[in-house]
Every structure is written in C-alpha cells, then in structure tokens.
Amino acid sequence: MEIIRSHQNAMVKNYQKLQTSKGRKKAEAYMIEGEHLVEEAIQSNISIQRLVVSEDTNHLYEKWTKSYPTMFVSKEVFEKLSMTQTNQGILAIVPLEKKTLVEVPQGRYLLADAVQDPGNLGTIIRTADAAGFDAVVLGEGCVDLYNDKVVRSMQGSQFHVPIYHENLTDVYGKLKENDIPIAVTALHRDAKDFKWLTGRDSVAIVVGNEGNGVRDELIESADFIIQIPMFGQAESLNVAIATGVLMYQTRI
Q1: Percentages (nearest 5) of helix, strand, coil residues in the chain
Q2: 0.90 surpassed by pTM
C-alpha cells in the first residue's frame, strides 16, 4: 500500500484546490468528509471519484477502500486536506451535480432568495429533505452550495432532494403555468398567518436573505404573503428556523 507523505504531491495539491469555490467549479467536483457523508453518498449511488484515507484509519474503512479508487495519505497530509478540526480520516471526491429545472409538476417547492449563511442554507436543505419537499431552488446571491460548511450542515440531504440553481423570476413563471401557488415570507400588512399553509400538498414557499428578506419584485409577483407571528420581543426568526416551521406546516 503506497502512502503519500508529501504535501507537494500533485494529487494532494489538486484536491486542496477543492477547498475553494473556484477550484470546485474548475474541477467540477467537491469533497465530502467523514464516515456518515461518505456512506450517504455510497448508499445514494453517487459516483465516488476517489476516496482519500489517512494511514492511521485505513483499517476502519476497508469495506470501501477495496471497492473504490483510494489514495492513502499520511495523517499530516490528511489534515491539510481536511476542513474539520477533528477529522475521521476519510473523505471522498464526488462530482458537482448540475440540474436544470425543466418541468414543475404539482408538489412542494422551497425557493431561497440570496440566503448567504452556510449553516442556514445547509439546514434549510436538510429540513426540506426531512419534510419531504420535492425540490429546493437556489436563486442568485445564495452561498455556494458546495461550501464545506453548507455540505456539513446538509448532512447528505443533497443526495436525497433535487437542488437547482435558477433565476427565481423564471421559476415563478413555471409555477404559475402549473397553478402552483407561490407564498412569500415578508413582514407586510396584507400578510396571512402562516397557518394558511396547513395541509397544502402543492405550494412554493419563498424565503429570503438574512438581513434584507425576499426581494421586492419577488414579493410583488407572489400569490400570497405569509408571516409567522412573534409572541415575544424578537423581531424575527432565524431564516432556517422559520423555513422549517413553514415547511412542516404543509404536513399538518
């Protein structure tokens, strides 16, 4: 078993580039790290381009290293590639997925307008997966889906729920063509209580930027404006928490 010990190794340097958005786009690949995410990818039949395993944890992952192309590295080299403080000694290189939203059949959709916090976006996608939503659509200004913090927050949900990068105005048109009501979140005098979503099996929920909310043009073009009432003194909810409340309301 060959073990790579040099930080100057060409493959090591190439994989380090995947720690940046520019590097991921150029390689059309990204890294997932840890046993759970690697297992999620394998169980979801995601193409594993290569496993990278630390020499001190090789014995833990023989069930996978025997089946997939694997690069074994020293503990020090693995720490250079790892994006976590406490790593599990395994990561995988997987392809970026490029999906185009061609058809919009009846169903539940979550549209995100310029959500910029990685933890928020990852949590929103994970919750959409848990709530059984049919797709998540990311509009302009959203944080990079493959940012390592987003990937960790998604916990593998990117393998379960379709995620699209689209112009939200164009998506509005497709939703309206299929009679799918668009409900946008905003503090507005004409806003309906969020319980309007109760039991709706076909709806598009639009959530917005942490500081500025949903853009005015998307609010004006929506079919309904909804809001969650505040019973305490907080002005608003964190966008990920609010999105979770709204999505699960459709399941009641």
Answers
A1: 40, 20, 40
A2: yes
